[in-house]
Amino acid sequence: MRIDAHQHFWLMAARRGEWPPPDLGPIHRDFLPPDLLPLLLEAGVDGTVLVQTLCTEADTDFMLDLAARHSFIRGVVGWTDLKAPDAPQRVRGLAARPKLKGLRPMVQAEASDWLDDAAIDPAASAMAEMGLSFDALVLPRHLPSLLRFARRHPALSIVIDHAAKPEIASGGTPGWAEDMGALAALPNVWCKLSGLLTEAGERTGIDDIRPYVRRLIALFGTDRLIWGSDWPVLRLAGDYPGWLDMCRRLIPAEAHPAVFGGNAATFYRLD
Fold first, then answer.
1. Vertex 125 angle, CA 114 and 182, to 5°
2. Does the pLDDT at position 271 exceed 90?
3. What residues contact residue 222 under an 8 Å CB cut-off, 6+ apart?
4. Helix (H, G, I), strand (E, B) or coil at 257
5. pTM of the prediction?
6. Packing angle of the helix pair 87-95, 121-130 (nearest 10 deg)
7. What are phi and psi of 116, to 5 degrees?
8. Residue 76 Cα distances to 73, 135, 157, angstroms
9. pLDDT single digits (tens) 220-231
10. Where does the pLDDT of residue 112 fall: very low under 50, low under 70, confident under 90, or very high at 90 and above?
11. Computed over its alpha carbons, how large is the radius of gyration of the chain?
12. Residue 165, pLDDT score
């Protein structure tokens, strides 16, 4: 089973004042299942994990409704305010929703120490209790606080989205590899092989991406590395078959079943 563990759908009518801006023409429009399904069929991808893009529970409802109507959406990563006083109750309510597999706060827009706030801990504990995973949408500057968060919650399954977005376009982020290594030493932390092309600027060739993928394999192995397209954001830097082919060339053939499907099924507890 081949799984795309990171893709998005959205309606521009729900995104007034939100990203993406009009100057990002390739993605400044509605994206819905009929737009992605032909690409999945062509690539031989059996299912996806649909990930939030707005900090609203209405967006989570929108995704869960799509998942109920489109069987290729195997799981949903939604959103709720994890620092709200009633966050544990909200988490437990969402965990009862079919196909809801995890939650994602958009930490990349927050201060570097956002995850150090103890206000998030009751919700994180409730997520672990209910078997939900935590998608860490972070930048390299958040990695030290993510490490402290992951250590506080060893029972919570955490995946680092887009390998924390190293600054490939400028030659890399100092300290990124060391901080990722500290996180990889924790067995509850996984990493997504996704989003790298959009951080690469003009450096989108396979030889530009190869050092980062090699480092991720060295740190996480091929049993905690999960492939995702980050479509349609991917359209800013490449295309679906090109990114999939590049990753298949960079990952050892014997690890393809795990990285391109099995690991996602395990991490997100997909049917």
1. 55
2. no
3. 251, 252, 255, 258, 259
4. helix
5. 0.98
6. 20
7. -80, -15
8. 8, 11, 15
9. 999 999 999 999
10. very high
11. 17
12. 98
